[in-house]
Prior knowledge:
The structure holds two protein chains of two kinds.
Chain A lengths: L3 E4 L2 E5 L4 E7 L6 E6 L5 E7 L5 E4 L2 E6 L4 E6 L8 E8 L6 E3 L3 E6 L1
Parallel strand pairs in A: 2-11
Antiparallel strand pairs in A: 1-3, 3-8, 4-5, 4-9, 6-7, 7-8, 9-10, 9-11
Chain B lengths: L4 E3 L2 E4 L5 E6 L6 E8 L3 E9 L2 E5 L6 E5 L5 E5 L8 E8 L8 E2 L3 E5 L1
Parallel strand pairs in B: 2-11
Antiparallel strand pairs in B: 1-3, 3-8, 4-5, 4-9, 5-6, 7-8, 9-10, 9-11
Amino acid sequence: ELKVEQNPLFLSMQEGKNYTIYCNYSTTSDRLYWYRQDPGKSLESLFVLLSNGAVKQEGRLMASLDTKARLSTLHITAAVHDLSATYFCAVERYNTDKLIFGTGTRLQVFP
Amino acid sequence: KAGVTQTPRYLIKTRGQQVTLSCSPISGHRSVSWYQQTPGQGLQFLFEYFSETQRNKGNFPGRFSGRQFSNSRSEMNVSTLELGDSALYLCASSRTDRGSPLHFGNGTRLTVT
């Protein structure tokens, strides 16, 4: 059964600092997604990673995928308060359209 | 372009009752998925429909069911509600091409008392 683990679960960081969120998954997959959820809101798609070595960047966020290590990272550069949210990775079970979500990382950026 | 629309936004039901939630996908999206979100279990996949057929199903009891209509709109039904069914139910739609992300609605917050 596909399991997706994220760490850390909680992340409190100062503005201007860098940090990385990790997403590990247990079985073969080549489709990985990152989502953001603000409190009381729905999920917003951030990145779609479809192949080994894929790297996507948007603003202060950069996501990468290593399918051999079954690992994706979401790197935050020079954090700002607006990035405070919960971030989820989701892995598509191989050859299906079923997404398995990680536990989420709650990010809080303070001045 | 309108997003995924879910109705109602909030529901309060009593144990033993049943409930129907509705989802209208983004125009042109033929795949609709349902997820349950709770603080304890996180986001869990319920089922996915495409062209009125259920293609995937999560590990939920038979009390949870769904369907999709010819216009791609979808409904999910929960019968014999239990306290543990209290959750945010999220519907998501997507295009059919490989790697299309899910687009989520704002969800229906169900409270079972």
